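Why does residue order matter? Because the sequence determines the fold. Keep that principle in mind as you read this record.
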Amino acid sequence: MRRLLSIALLAAAAGWGQNAEPRMVRINAPYVETPPEVVDAMLDAAQVKAGDVVYDLGCGDGRILIAAARRFGVHGVGVDISAEHIAQARRNAEKAGVASLVDFRVEDLFEMDLGKATVVTLYLLRSVNLELRPKLLAELAPGTRIVSHEFDMGDWKPARQLQVHGSKIFLWVIPPRP
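Structure:
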């Protein structure tokens, strides 16, 4: 019975019904917190500095943007498909005193405009990174830094790779346009 209920809920979420066309339900990545040491190492690897605009795709509770705003005074945009995570991120930013520097949105990272970012942070699955890669290359300006916790982007070789407390961190830089 439980399995049948799960299938019915998935079908409803996908929009399946007698008169409905099936549609893909995108699940980007499970929520897993990034340890503070890894957050700091990601920001250091990306060489975040005053004047940067940091986008955190799949921002969860907002910890990366909050750390960037506190350490460097930078503006940031965080997106997550979970309204609960965004509400928590906003509360955390208020508590940290950086709410005026960060904007948290319930949004699909594949639908948003990334053009204003100078740094992009990710803690998504490898499959999501690979799907996101063409969008990053198309929308981000040359020189924009992308830093990922744990997952690479296939054959796109990182400019830098490091290990922090057992976690992998990858850094890429958007190349000049031909």
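The two ends are 57 Å apart (CA to CA).
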